[in-house]
Design brief:
about 170 residues, seven-stranded mixed β-sheet, globular, binds S-adenosylmethionine
Length: about 170
């Protein structure tokens, strides 16, 4: 299956800074385009990809059938707050254009991620806002939400684009 890879997904995967043997959780994997990119990174040992949309997850499974068959990708349907994370601890957690981290406190989800990160693990949030003003606003909101939930923002990067991109890296305090 071929697809044009959006710039935000390449940028998000390139910024993950994965090391040999790393386990990655992707939240809101959609149709699995970033998952396929992660599968091309030899250092990535395994990716657990979750999405609450059954149809998106089905497409992700079709796109990444080889990775799943090889045991390098596991797909789980459900909300981040409750989905089965297969008992894994993750070195990197990635979410691209997943709004729950700024639309509300996301306390349950962020607590869950804190408990699921391996020592030294990092949460990477990436967004493609419509313009620079929205990117600036999003950066403030995300920082506020993460800090309130007890996380430390370790890096905040904005690209004016096109396309405008925002990347936030955080770890539990
Ligand atoms: C805007 S799409 C982004 C998809 C992909 N990451 C991308 O950038 O192309 C957001 C995805 O996150 C999923 N999603 C949103 N909130 C979620 C939640 N609380 N738990 C699991 N998946 C969620 C949606 O079903 C959707 O597939």
């Amino acid at each position: 299956m071929t697809a044009t890879v959006p710039e935000r997904l390449r940028w998000a995967v390139d910024r993950l800074d994965v090391r040999a043997g790393h386990r990655v959780l992707e939240i809101g994997c959609g149709r699995g385009v970033a998952l396929a990119l992660l599968g091309e990174v030899p250092e990535v040992a395994r990716v657990v990809a979750v999405d609450r949309s059954a149809s998106a997850l089905r497409a992700a499974g079709q796109r990444n059938a080889d990775l799943v068959a090889a045991g390098r990708a596991v797909l789980r349907e459900g909300e981040l707050a409750t989905v089965d994370l297969v008992g894994e601890r993750f070195d990197r957690v990635l979410a691209v254009n997943v709004n729950l981290f700024w639309t509300g406190p996301a306390t349950i989800e962020l607590d869950r991620l804190a408990a699921s990160l391996a020592p030294g693990g990092r949460l990477h949030l990436v967004y493609q806002p419509p313009d620079a003003a929205r990117a600036a606003d999003l950066a403030v909101r995300l920082t506020d939400r993460l800090t309130a939930a007890g996380w430390t923002v370790h890096d905040l990067t904005r690209l004016d684009g096109p396309p405008p991109l925002l990347g936030v890296v955080a770890h539990p305090a």
